[in-house]
Amino acid sequence: MATASRELATRLGLPLISAPPQSGLWLQWTTSGLALQAGATRPQRLIVDFAAGAQGHRAAQLGHRRELVARACGVGGGRDGSIVDATAGLGRDGFVLAALGARVTMLERSPILGELLADGLQRAHQAGHAEIVERISLITTEAAEWLPLQSAETPPRVVYLDPMYAETQRRAAAGKALAMLQKLLEPDDDADALLDVAHTVATERVVVKRHRKAAPLGANAPDYTLTGRSTRFDVYRVSAAPPVGNEES
C-alpha cells in the first residue's frame, strides 16, 4: 500500500507520514479500505463502506423503497431518474437512490471526502454492487460552481441537498461518522445560496434534508414536507409536476 499512499498524498498535496500524529486527522490505507482517522492511541476511524455494515444492510433491503428520501425525490414510476446529490457527504442517500434505479451525480467539495467516496464505490463495485455503482458519477467540485454550467439539454430532474449542520444543532444525535465529518468539514454556511442555484437547474424539484426541528433553508417555505423520526425532507417544486404527497410520518 506504500505506492497507493504516495499517490494519494500527491493528489491531495498532503505530507506522507510514517507514524500517526498525536493529534488531528490523517488518512491511512487499511485492509478494509481508505480510512480517515483521529487520535493516536485508540484512533477513531471513518471508512465509506456501501457493501457492509449499516449502509450495506440499508442498500440491500427492499424497505428502502419506502424511505423518505426516495419518496421525497420522486424515485420510481417510470420517470427520468436523473438526480444531482449536490452535497454528497458520505454518499449514503445517493447510493440508496441509485439502488432504486436513479442516475445519481454525487458532488463533493472536499477532496479528502471525495477520495473516501471513490474508494467506497470501488469496493462496492467489486463486492457485487456493480449495477448500482455504474449509475453513480462522482465529481469533486464546488456544487455552486458546477451546477450553473450544466447543459440545458440534460438538466437533472432533482437536485438533492443535505447541508452539514452546525455541531451544536446535532450533537445529541451525531454518531461517530458525523463526528468525524464535523472535524473534517466546516458547516455549509453557503447552503442558502446553493438552494437558490439548485432552483435554477432542477426541472422538477429541489429536496433539502433537514433536522426535524430546524428552520427551513433559505427565505421561502417548502411546498410540502415529509417528516421522519429525527429528520425531514423539504420539497420545493420547480415545475407543475404532481406532488408525491403532503404528509408527515
TrEMBL record:
Catalytic activities: guanosine(1516) in 16S rRNA + S-adenosyl-L-methionine = N(2)-methylguanosine(1516) in 16S rRNA + S-adenosyl-L-homocysteine + H(+)
An example molecular function term from Gene Ontology annotations: rRNA (guanine-N2-)-methyltransferase activity
Residues that bind S-adenosyl-L-methionine: 92-93, 108-109, 162
Keywords: Cytoplasm, Methyltransferase, rRNA processing, S-adenosyl-L-methionine, Transferase
E.C. number: 2.1.1.242
GO cellular component, one term: cytoplasm
Superkingdom, natural source: Bacteria
S-adenosyl-L-methionine found in the keyword field: yes
Entry coiled-coil feature ranges: none
Subcellular location: Cytoplasm
InterPro entries per UniProt: 16SrRNA_methylTrfase_J, SAM-dependent_MTases_sf
Family, per entry: Belongs to the methyltransferase superfamily. RsmJ family.
Role this protein plays: Specifically methylates the guanosine in position 1516 of 16S rRNA.
Protein name in the entry: Ribosomal RNA small subunit methyltransferase J
Source organism (scientific name): Spiribacter salinus M19-40
